[in-house]
Here is the input.
Amino acid sequence: MLDRLPMFDEITETGVKWADGREQAVDVILWATGFRSALDHLAPLDLREPNGGIIMGGRLATEVAKEPRVHLVGYGPSASTIGANRAGRAAAAELLATLGIAPSMKDPAESSAAAAQ
Here is the structure.
């Protein structure tokens, strides 16, 4: 389950930290930025190439080549409502594989098709 939390102040080695000192261990940070890419806050991760671009990889080009734990869904080739939806599903599967976690949810389309039979 995803629980939205207030914006944190720092990314640590094992998670995130707020100004009040509270820390939370996290495996994934899902940053939903909308259609306008705003990536300046990711500068410390050194994701950009010398020419300023970010090389994308993965099944639907959401994975940052320099850091496979970072996926930019809705950025580049997945920058459309349909593209982001499909890319989000692919990114989640790739992140689960990176973390060594088996997916626990079926594709809703598969569930609907099975129920119709």
User: Anything to note?
Assistant: The beta strands are 10-11, 15-17, 23-25, 56-57, 63-64, 67-71.
